[in-house]
Amino acid sequence: MSEKITKEQRSKNMSAIRSVSKLEDRISKALWAKGFRIRRNVKSLYGKPDFAIKKYKIVIFIDSCFWHSCPVHGNRPKNNKEFWEAKLNRNVERDKEVTDYYLKKQWHIMRIWEHDFKNDFEGSILLIKNFINESKEQTSKSNY
């Protein structure tokens, strides 16, 4: 199936897509309000985690249901099926590679689905808060 728009129009459309979502903004503000000083979309870290605290070797990824093939809500487009299958399967494969990378480096890694925030935003923030606190404690103990 051929494209209905030119390459230049497609490029313009794609350049308008931002890597930081409104959901990430809400999460960041909620964590900031709880006293966590985290960095967002850290380009210097492998896989460009959504949130990171390098001092405590903590990375957090917020996985969108579409792009990361959520088993509950992830749907596959019907048009251009081969392209989307390959693209979304590669995203899942990359997620596994990134997770393995951080585990091998003994970092604390958390992956949480976007639908968890949509179902219970405060509960999901509490999960992240507890994860960060436990990770900080473990890192502090291992430094002695």
Walk me through what this model shows:
With 144 residues, the chain is an alpha+beta fold. 51% of the residues lie in helices and 12% in strands. It has a 4-stranded mixed sheet with strand order 1-2-3-4, with helices on both faces. The termini are far apart. 15% of the residues are buried. The model has no long low-confidence stretch (mean pLDDT 90).
Unreliable sequence segments: none
- The strands making up the biggest β-sheet line up spatially as 1-2-3-4
Radius of gyration: 17 Å
Number of strands: 4
Coarse structural class: alpha+beta
Largest sheet: 4 strands, mixed
Shape: globular
Q: What letter string, H or E per element, gives the SSE order? A: HHEEEHEHH
Quote the beta fraction: 5-15%
- Rounded mean pLDDT score: 90
- The rounded distance between the terminal residues' Cα atoms is 61 Å
- Level of helix content? 40-55%
Helical region count?
Answer: 5
Helices, strands, pairings?
Layout: H1 7-15, H2 22-33, E1 39-40, E2 51-53, E3 58-63, H3 81-104, E4 108-113, H4 114-119, H5 121-142
Parallel strand pairs: 3-4
Antiparallel strand pairs: 1-2, 2-3
From the structure above, extract its key features.
51% helix, 4 strands, 12% strand, 144 residues, four-stranded mixed β-sheet, alpha+beta
Provide a concise account of the structure shown.
The chain is an alpha+beta fold.
